[in-house]
Amino acid sequence: MKGFPIQEDKSAIKMSIVNFSRVLKFRNNILIPDNSFSILVLKSLILILFLFSSSFSPLNPATRTTASAYAELEAKIRNNYDKYSVFRWDQYHELMALLSQDKYIALPLNKMRRTYNDSKVVVGIRHDVDFNPFKALEMAYIEKSYGIRATYFFLATAEYYGKISDFIITRSPGIESLFKEVHNTGAEIGIHNDLLTVLITDKIDPYQFNKEELKLYKSLRTPIYGTASHGSALAKVTVPNFQIFSDFASSDSLDFQGKKYPLGKHSLKECGFRYEAYSIDFGFYFSDSGGKWNDPEGLAGILKKLEASKPGDRIQILIHPDWWGKTSN
Ligand SMILES: [Zn+2]
After folding, report:
1. 254-286: pLDDT as tens digits
2. What one-character DSSP code corresponds to residue 255?
């Protein structure tokens, strides 16, 4: 039986070549005088038509611009931020291998929040992408290789995303294709909420700003279900970002440096979201915030806790791709 599949493949290739030349001959009989020169012309025409019509064509100026903008953005961000990684990819593989076991169901948050299963440990995988979305893309491909899906929350106030000045956000050319590619791995995309910074530092109405964000993702055909609050420097000295929503606001305004800012003007639902990551129902929360696992034994401790978890348990794991894929010692 050895070698049989290869022989089968070869004959399949031969078959398709035969069929293709038959089609050409047929067209040749009907449309074009029977000589090899006209077949050559026909083939060239088909090739030229294909190259110009394809959106992936190297001859398409829009594709060329996007590709070079993407490469420039990647070079800049990796140069600035790859050095901050503290965890290795092989450690991530170890975590994924464990979560692939039958005992667990690992899900993006929008699925996890609606999944209750007494015979499994239900795990929601959350990724806050604070400064290095190229690590997020690498991570998404690792998850894909294990058949695991997670949620990636992208941050509109991050350097990778663009610039906000004079009440306008200018997105980095090329960033949209990254969002699309992460989504195409099977991941859920969400919004990493930094609306307090938008309100206080950039002086933009957070409701309108968020609306524009949702428009962008709609145009990319990446559905948005949820948001996760970013622990910005500003939030640390005021209130958590989720208090921008009426569902969580502790008061109707915030006093900061002698000024009053409105809180809770709109609900999560009015802002287009079905969930806020912190308000999902879970009993255990593991996180690598600040490049440090919330366990004295680090990842080993987290793996032990996962192994000790019981069917029916609900766990949220927050992993920042920024800290992963260590490239130096
Ligand atoms: Zn964050």
Report:
1. 999 999 999 999 999 999 999 999 999 999 999
2. E
pTM for the structure as a whole: 0.81
The rounded Å distance from CA 229 to ligand 1 centre is: 7
Interval between CA 72 and ligand 1 midpoint (Å) = 24
**42-59 pLDDT per residue, tens:** 667 766 665 555 444 445
Q: What is the C-alpha separation between 97 and 110, in angstroms, rounded?
A: 22
Ligand 1 centroid–CA 155 distance in Å is: 7
Helix residue spans in the chain (DSSP H): 4-31, 36-53, 61-81, 89-99, 109-112, 133-145, 175-184, 195-200, 206-219, 233-237, 299-308
Cite the DSSP H helix spans in 56-166: 61-81, 89-99, 109-112, 133-145
SS3 content of the chain, % helix, strand, coil (to 5): 45, 20, 35
Ligand 1 centroid from CA 128, angstroms: 5
> In whole angstroms, what is the distance from residue 242 CA to residue 97 CA?
33
Give phi and psi for 241, each to the nearest 5: -55, -30
Dihedral sign, CA of 178, 181, 187, 190? positive
Return the structure tokens found at 277.
Answer: 């990551």
Do the Cβ atoms of 124 and 97 come closer than 8 Å? no
**Which residues lie below 8 Å from residue 248, measured CB to CB, with a gap of 6+?**
240, 242, 264, 276, 279
* C-alpha of residue 154 to centroid of ligand 1, in Å: 9
Q: Within 13 Å, how many C-alpha atoms sit on residue 305's CB side? A: 21
Tokens representing residue 154 in the block: 């992208």
Q: Which two tokens stand for residue 48?
A: 């030229």
